[in-house]
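Supplementary Note 3. Input sequence used for the single-chain structure prediction.
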Amino acid sequence: PHRCGECGKSFAQRSALAKHRKTHSGERPHRCGDCGKSFSRGSNLTQHRRIHTGERPFACGDCGKGFIQRSDLERHQRVHTGERPYPCGQGGKSFSVSSHLDRH
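The predicted structure, written as discrete structure tokens, is reproduced below.
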């Protein structure tokens, strides 16, 4: 494994460690041409650009609503399934979004 000298986090691949190191160095070489915001990873810039283009490549099969990120679609789908994967350990109540549990 490849270990980060700053925080001790380990990675199976050297390339993953190289990407991770940018979080410590503050290096953000990927810049948005529209608003100037910069990112440490090109994939984060690609995702950000969707704000400007309006692209929403992840569509809900039930209602057709589109999302910028797959994780947002997965969270949205709980509206249709009723899934509540975040239980409160004290009251038996559960939540569909982790931040709702935190707020509770």
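The mean pLDDT is 93. Helices lie at 14-25, 42-53, 70-76, 78-81, 98-103.
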